[in-house]
């Protein structure tokens, strides 16, 4: 905690003593801020440039970003707070934001909605009698993207001291706990109910089933040109005729037989349910190599594939320093033989993903695909690539314009290149530009990053996840909003820090997975796959939770605000609803410092009227994490949720 800052005493005097001015930038990094993107910067913007608003440069202030919270203890001795506020000019886009000043929970001043290019707003707020003052930056209906906010020349006039205090509670250490029971020894088939592939392209799928091995597999009704390996369960070949095929999958072991009818659609559409897999960035960053990718593939095959996980994706850091004379891209020394690596991954029944950029360089400074799109697409076809994450880095040096049409154009170019190769490649439109969900489908994306990078902090997870309602209606089969990877397990090097267990508590991790499944977002694990503990593995292997993600309707999730948090719901193909009751408040402020620990030990009540789902009368409720029926309810469902936790249920109307 920062020491109390002493300012220069003024010469004025009165019955209550002299006043002094405390400049907030003089606290430096000692301010106990909570911010949902980037670091609070002193005397420069959040992106490390001079503080500049509407063309005017300011020498002192704080570079923030929504949602940002700065809380100060005034000991009821402050007189006023004054300064300026504005949206910083150094911003590709014009995110909407608002500045607020609150005293003891009461709003004292607000700027109104602001964007890049607006003039600064001046404030001079009376703080007499105020115990704590909060400087808040809010998002304004478009999420937190590109809300670069500057507090300028801010000073508090006081007769006492000013002390930064935590705006959020420090997490209380709790034991991780496992909710999901082990899978039965008898077969359970976990394939999604629908699968899409293009005619004439290599077909790779599997019967994904848990249960004792050895296991025998069968499939009836497969498209012509596709066959099943009865020992491995892998389905390969090339489908020759377009159409919808009702396929019965079977799995048999010493404990019994399971079967499941799925629909295989041979046509133009692929990725009909959200992608499930692993990405190398969050745990390995640019240090990823062949061995680490093979370790991830081996672990996925042994522990996760039976639950539906299938993509092994390399992020940035695989590219050589230059291309061949013919313009072909090469892998660097960390990946001596890409074709051998992809053959290994495909041999496990898994799929392989890669990373590139429409610019001449990638985010990590490696060779991008600019003006080599068709060559790269053909190279990836030869290597056997099944997934492409296409980031935006580097293209800004080529095209400075940040209009949506300009951003969309390079993605259309790569889409056309991918369409010329004979391979089903899931296409992820990266970068998270504002309103990407409006134009990425037209650019041919199967999924698109709606945000900047996630980290394993609760305020970041909630700022990303709980504002996805702004883009939810773009969700459809083959079209998914992507709020970034799952931050569970061992993480770190992708963010420049040491490898560590996720900073999210157990309750927060249950909430994180639950919300991403409700959002129909891609599920991409970001941890060190070779070192997953039992808790993380259990989080990722609940087939009933995963079924919500993989529901064939891919219906948009709906958000409802309630007293103790948020309720998110998603209609499922069978007429039931997946519903998550989340104890979450992106704008929570710890006004009472003494309550920091006790509040984390409480449970929070939710009373939910089923009419909000359109259900009249009775319904059956099932706890998805515990895989346990909770019985019949009539009208109102009641539950208690732990701090930052979730109750995740399936509600089925009575027939």
TrEMBL record:
Q: Which InterPro entries match?
A: Aldolase_TIM, Cadherin-like_sf, Galactose-bd-like_sf, GH, Glyco_hyd_98_carb-bd, Glyco_hydro_27, Glyco_hydro_b, Ig-like_fold
Which is a Gene Ontology cellular component entry for this protein?
A: membrane
Keyword Mitochondrion: yes or no?
Answer: no
A GO biological process this protein is involved in?
carbohydrate metabolic process
Q: Which reaction does it catalyse?
A: Hydrolysis of terminal, non-reducing alpha-D-galactose residues in alpha-D-galactosides, including galactose oligosaccharides, galactomannans and galactolipids
Question: Which Gene Ontology terms cover its molecular function?
Answer: alpha-galactosidase activity; calcium ion binding
| Key words of the record | Disulfide bond, Glycosidase, Hydrolase, Signal
EC main group: hydrolase
**How far does the signal peptide extend, from start to end residue?**
none
Kindly give the Pfam families that the UniProt entry links to this protein: He_PIG (PF05345), Melibiase_2 (PF16499), Melibiase_C (PF17801), NPCBM (PF08305)
Give the E.C. number(s): 3.2.1.22
By sequence similarity, the record places it as follows: Belongs to the glycosyl hydrolase 27 family.
Write the protein's name.
Answer: Alpha-galactosidase
Organism of derivation? Bacteroides uniformis
């Amino acid at each position: 905690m920062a020491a109390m800052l002493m300012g220069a005493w003024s010469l004025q005097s009165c019955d209550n003593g002299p006043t002094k001015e405390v400049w907030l930038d003089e606290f430096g990094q000692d301010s106990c801020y909570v911010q949902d993107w980037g670091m609070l910067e002193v005397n420069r913007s959040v992106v490390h440039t001079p503080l500049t608003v509407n063309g005017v440069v300011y020498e002192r202030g704080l570079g923030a970003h929504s949602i940002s919270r700065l809380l100060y203890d005034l000991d009821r001795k402050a007189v006023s707070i004054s300064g300026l506020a504005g949206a910083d000019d150094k911003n590709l886009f014009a995110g909407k934001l608002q500045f607020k000043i609150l005293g003891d929970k009461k709003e004292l001043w607000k700027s109104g909605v602001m964007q890049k290019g607006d003039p600064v707003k001046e404030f001079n707020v009376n703080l007499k009698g105020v115990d704590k003052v909060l400087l808040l930056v809010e998002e304004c209906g478009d999420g937190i993207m590109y809300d670069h906010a500057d507090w300028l020349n801010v000073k508090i006039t006081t007769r006492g001291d000013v002390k930064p205090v935590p705006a959020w509670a420090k997490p209380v250490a709790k034991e991780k706990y496992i909710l999901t029971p082990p899978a039965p020894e008898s077969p359970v088939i976990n394939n999604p109910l629908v699968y899409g592939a293009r005619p004439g392209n290599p077909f790779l799928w599997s019967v994904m089933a848990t249960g004792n091995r050895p296991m025998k597999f069968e499939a009836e009704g497969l498209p012509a040109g596709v066959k099943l390996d009865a020992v491995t369960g892998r389905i390969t070949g090339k489908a020759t005729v377009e159409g919808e095929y009702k396929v019965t999958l079977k799995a048999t072991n010493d404990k019994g037989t399971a079967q499941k009818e799925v629909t295989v659609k041979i046509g133009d559409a692929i990725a009909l349910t959200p992608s499930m897999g692993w990405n190398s960035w969050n745990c390995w960053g640019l240090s990823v190599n062949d061995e680490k990718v093979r370790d991830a593939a081996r672990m996925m095959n042994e522990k996760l594939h039976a639950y539906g996980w299938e993509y092994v994706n390399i992020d940035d850091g695989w590219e050589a320093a230059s291309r061949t004379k013919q313009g072909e891209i090469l892998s660097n020394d960390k990946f001596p033989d890409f074709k051998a690596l992809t053959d290994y991954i495909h041999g496990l029944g898994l799929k392989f993903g890669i990373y590139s950029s429409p610019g001449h360089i990638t985010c990590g400074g490696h060779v991008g695909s600019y003006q080599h799109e068709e060559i790269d697409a053909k190279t990836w076809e030869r290597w056997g690539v099944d997934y492409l994450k296409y980031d935006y880095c580097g293209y800004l040096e080529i095209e400075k314009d940040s209009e949506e049409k300009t951003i969309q154009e390079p993605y259309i170019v790569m889409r056309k290149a991918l369409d010329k190769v004979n391979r089903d490649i899931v296409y992820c439109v990266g970068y998270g530009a504002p309103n990407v969900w409006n134009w990425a489908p037209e650019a041919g994306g199967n999924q698109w990053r709606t945000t900047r990078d996630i980290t394993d902090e609760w305020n970041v997870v909630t700022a990303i996840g709980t504002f996805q309602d702004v883009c939810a209606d773009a969700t459809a089969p083959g079209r998914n909003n992507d709020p970034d990877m799952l931050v569970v397990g061992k993480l770190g090097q992708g963010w420049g820090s040491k490898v560590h267990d996720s900073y999210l508590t157990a309750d927060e991790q249950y909430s994180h997975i639950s919300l991403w499944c409700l959002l129909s977002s891609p599920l991409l694990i970001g941890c060190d796959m070779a070192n997953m503990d039992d808790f993380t593995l259990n989080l990722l292997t609940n087939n009933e939770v995963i079924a919500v993600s993989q529901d064939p309707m891919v219906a948009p999730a709906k958000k409802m605000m309630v007293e103790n948090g948020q309720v998110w719901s998603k209609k499922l193909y069978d007429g039931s609803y997946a519903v998550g009751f989340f104890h979450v408040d992106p704008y929570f402020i710890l006004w009472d410092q003494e309550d920091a620990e006790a509040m984390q030990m409480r449970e929070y009540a939710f009373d939910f009227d089923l009419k909000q789902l359109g259900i009249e009368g009775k319904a059956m409720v099932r706890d998805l994490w515990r895989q346990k029926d909770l019985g019949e309810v009539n009208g109102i469902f009641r539950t208690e949720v732990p701090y930052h936790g979730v109750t995740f249920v399936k509600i089925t109307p009575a027939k």
